[in-house]
Amino acid sequence: MDRDTIGDLADSHPLPHDAEFSAASPRDAAKAKTISERALIVTQGKHRFYSLVLPSDLLAQTCTVEARAENPADGFQRLLDERRARSIARYIDAGLGTVPGAVVLSAQTRAHLSFDKDEGALTFRKDPKAFLIIDGQHRVFGFKLAKSSVSVPVVIYNRLTRAQECRLFMDINTKQRPVPNELLLDIRRLSELETETEALLHNVFDAFHTREDSALAGFLSPAERKKGMISRVTFNAALRSIKGAFDGAPAEEVYVVLNAYILACRHGLGLHAIDQNIANPVLFKALMLLFTNVAGRVADRHGGQYTVRNFEEVLVPFFRRLKKSDLPRAGMTHIMLHEHYSKALSAGFLLKQWLFA
After folding, report:
1. Are residues 263 and 155 in the same domain?
2. Is the pLDDT of residue 254 over 90?
3. Which domain holds residue 262?
4. Concatenated DSSP letters for 268-303?
5. How many structural domains are present in the chain?
6. Between 20 and 30 A from 137 (CA), which of 7, 127, 307, 327?
7. Same domain, 267 and 152
8. How many CB atoms sit inside 10 A of residue 329's CB?
9. Which of 147, 175, 203 marks a domain boundary?
């Protein structure tokens, strides 16, 4: 936002009466309740805004959003995800959660916003279009759906032009970085919110990350995404696709079997001097999907002895037939790659290949 245009974003003067609001009948005007709340004027460089706390049900009654689908000429907000809003409502009604982030608003003319510096009080009309939501539309709509009311931190800008509102929306949504999903998985453990499946995946990942005999040693990144490494999110997604194979198994047993399988995969990739490609997300997920097929054949041949050597007996002939062109290409998904590998694995099971391998 240009510094020379924002010096008067928050002021102590009421906005001029909106024509639409002024044209209302005396009866409608009488129904418009005036709200007065304690507020502070906050200055950040040349930026100024009001900071206060409002009840969530009041926000639901005084805030609006202008989505582009409804007003493509002037609208800049995203369409509402009702499922997300209902999730917030359930979270509020549970009575155990908190939503501390400030909702950012722009006062519209029909708010009749005014600030009493002596009293430190911000006054506005309780009107359904008093404020345009700059940031926090899903929270506000969640408040509207909730049965309970909570206190919410609010930031209100005054006298913004539509261009300034758009710039502020862009600043908030491009300069703030969301918490990485990898870090959120760690936080779920610390907050004791993990499901049984999440706990299993977490423990198996940690084993692969810390054990010296790990087939993925040096290839895992637990808290963030890094190029050439497997993140916790990618690892979890890959193992979820085959979680049925490990029902009821402890993390240690899952680690031992998968470690043997991945070592065999790396040896197979090593035939083409590309064992480092195990960290490619598409390839890793495809090979994980292939696990149940390979493990079934190992079980048939060796009575469930899931050793590296037994996995290699199935995998090495398969990898010998692969060409570098069979590796992930741009636009190829792990599902597509798995289908290709599954067919190649099945096509290679000829008796003479096992007799003369």
Report:
1. no
2. yes
3. 181-355
4. HHHTTT-GGGGG-HHHHHHHHHHHHHHHHHHHHHHT
5. 2
6. 7
7. no
8. 10
9. 175
| Tokens of residue 222, six digits | 């637990």
CA 35 from centroid of its chain's CA atoms: 36
Q: What is the model's pLDDT at position 315?
A: 93
pLDDT tens-digit profile of 319-333? Answer: 888 877 777 777 778
Is 257 in the same domain as 321?
yes
Average pLDDT over residues 90-114: 85
Q: How does DSSP assign 260-274, residue by residue?
A: HHHHHHHHHHHTTT-
Does residue 26 register a pLDDT over 50? no
CA distance 105 to 88: 19
CA distance linking residue 113 with residue 156, whole number of Å: 10
229 and 155 share a domain? no
CA angle 38, 105, 100 (to 5 degrees): 70
Cross-strand bridge partners of residue 48: 43
What type of residue sits at position 144? Answer: K
Does residue 311 contact residue 256 with C-beta atoms inside 8 Å?
no
Task: Clarify whether residues 162 and 198 are in a common domain.
Answer: no
Beta bridge partners of 37: 122
Model-wide pTM > 0.70: no
